[in-house]
Specification:
The chain is mostly helical. The chain has two domains: 30 residues; 45 residues, Arc Repressor Mutant (Orthogonal Bundle). 78% of the residues lie in helices and 0% in strands. Helix 2 packs across helix 3. The protein is elongated and about 70 Å long.
């Protein structure tokens, strides 16, 4: 195999590895969407809390739910 052929083969392997890494990241980053209805009062409270914690409202709701699940698992 010539050096040029070897380099081409290595570049092709690198492209395949990068494609697999992108696919894996996409799968890991995928999140479920959930429609959620909240009262204005609850929305405002969560929005204020999110602002204090420098999070988006969506991020704050995810944080609250994650903490609730952690607490529940700890008490089982």
């Amino acid at each position: 195999m010539t050096p040029e052929e070897r380099e081409q083969a290595l570049l092709e392997r690198l492209r395949r590895i990068e494609a697999l890494e992108r696919e894996l990241k996409a799968k890991e980053g995928a999140k479920k969407q959930v429609p959620l209805r909240l009262s204005n009062t609850l929305w405002n409270e969560i929005a204020a809390w999110a602002e204090e914690d420098f999070r988006s409202i969506n991020g704050q709701i995810e944080y609250i739910l994650t903490e609730a699940v952690r607490k529940r698992k700890g008490s089982l």
